[in-house]
Every structure is written in structure tokens, then in C-alpha cells.
Amino acid sequence: MAVQSPPAPRLAFVCASTLAAREAKGRLEQIYGAASTAEADIIVALGGDGLMLQALHRNMRRLKPIYGMNLGTVGFLLNTYRETNLLKRLKKARQVTLTPLRMLATNTRGKVSEVLAINEVSLLRSSRQTARIEVAVDGQKRLPELHCDGVLVATPAGSTAYNLSAHGPILPLGAGLLALTPINAFRPRRWRGALLPRTSKVEFTILDPKKRPVAAAADSVEIANVAHVAVTEASDTKLTLLFDPEHDLEERILKEQFAP
Q1: Phi/psi zone of residue 206: left (φ > 0), alpha (ψ -120 to 50 degrees), beta?
Q2: Rounded distance, CA 18 to CA 208, Å?
């Protein structure tokens, strides 16, 4: 009796708003078919890193792997764009599991907003004056008063994004750490941030929030006029990305530490 090959995975294609991405989506759907994101076995994202983050956020509860192909600029979270042999590439792809951060932001009116972040949670001043922020880790006050433009907590996957531009450390995926990084710190002058266990609870209390307002952002979702922000790892949420063996995300992050 002949052994039947397993059926090809159902693919859902999502794309950025650019003409190149939309045209690529149309061609790929003609070749490989088009399932809805609810019906698909794998979601294929066409665009740049921004589109990949958007696809991850929109499909966070679907628990389906996402394979990205770069039609943007940097494409750190994506694979090389090629239309041929996509099913073979998906079969050989390696899985990378990401755990996002959970932000609980309380504004000055007492409203609490919960948002997940794949890259980072960042606090940024909303006026010409520097922000003044108290920083506590696991209930212990570590900085009574940080004078700065802002401060962020980054995941390993996000450590090469905004965190890196703020001179924060690059974290290997398996390091089990979070990066706590100031943005243009004025006081204390010598503080350059901290490496924290991934299980840490980081709390920011805004000092004088009316005079020195601060906004908090979880990736692209921003909450204005915050008074208190708590950041923890969302250990109950796991996101799966697929990478070609030659574009392994862990290897990319390692290479970034030796980039000129």
C-alpha cells in the first residue's frame, strides 16, 4: 500500500500596504492558494519588521507560526523574499519561540490599560521638560529619581531595536534576561541601565506627572499621561516564528554584537 504524503500546509498571506508587497501577495496566492488567517496552518508575512510585529500582534491568540519574507528595509525578523520553493522552505524552517512583555499602565485618572509588547515597553517624556521617574524591581526601589527623556524594558528579540539605539545591550535569545535601559539619562549621570532576570517585575512611578507628563508605549500602542507602569514577562503567551536555517534569528542577534 502506497504511503501518502502529508497534505501541504494551508497558507494565509498578509502584507504591508506598499505596492511591492501587495503585488507579491497576489502572485503568491495564485501559486500557493489563499486561506484565511483563521483557517491557515502557517501565516506568511510580506513586508518589513513593522509588518511582522503587526502580524504577530494581530494573530497573538491564534497560536500559529508566522514566516516572514522581507520586502521592507532591514528585515531583521524576516527571511529573504523568494517566490519559488516556498513549501520546501517552510518544511525545513526552524522554529523560534518568543515571549512578549505585559505592560500594565495606570494613567493619572486611574484607568488601567494592559498591552503586550514583543520588542519593548518604553516610557517617554511628553513635554519639553525631562521626566522624573522612580524605578523599582521586584518591589525594591532601585532608583528613587531618574531624570531622563525616558526609559525602556526590552526583550532579547527587541534588544537590537530601540534598545540598541539607546545604547542598551544586545541580549542572546536564550540568555533569560531583560534589558532595562535609560534614554538620555541626566541624573544619575553614570547609570547606563541594568540586566534583569526575565522573571523580574519592573515598576515605574512618574514623579510630578502633571508638570512632567510621560507616555508609555508597548511596541506601537501608546498610553498617554501615565502615573504608574508595571512590566512583567507574559509567560502565558508564546509566539512562534519560522526562519530559514541560514537566517536563524539567534545567529543574527549574535552577529549584531560584532557588527562594526
Answers
A1: beta
A2: 43
What 3-state class would DSSP assign to 21?
A: helix
Q: What integer pLDDT is reported at residue 4 of this predicted model?
A: 55
Catalytic residue among 49, 149, 208, 244: 49
pLDDT in tens, 107-166: 999 999 999 999 999 999 999 999 999 999 999 999 999 999 999 999 999 999 999 999
Can 49 be counted among the known catalytic residues?
A: yes
- Rounded Cα distance between 96 and 65, Å, is 9
Element of type H or E holding 42:
strand 42-47
pLDDT in tens, 68-88: 999 988 788 899 999 999 999
> Distance between CA atoms of 146 and 192, rounded to whole angstroms?
11
- The pTM assigned to this predicted structure is 0.89
Cell numbers standing for residue 188: 544619575
Q: Is 4 exposed, middle or buried (0-12, 13-18, 19+ CB in 10 A)?
A: exposed
**DSSP string computed for 61-90:** TTT--EEEEE-SS--TTSBPP-STTHHHHH
Cα-based angle 160, 77, 155 (whole degrees, multiple of 5): 40
Q: Sort strands 42-47 and 11-15 into parallel, antiparallel or unpaired.
A: parallel
On whether the CB atoms of residues 90 and 82 are closer than 8 A, the answer is no
The predicted model gives 193-220 an average pLDDT of 96
Please name the helix (run of DSSP H) or strand (run of DSSP E) that holds residue 255, with its range, or none: helix 249-256
Q: What distance in Å separates the CA atoms of residue 177 and residue 186, rounded to the nearest whole number?
A: 25
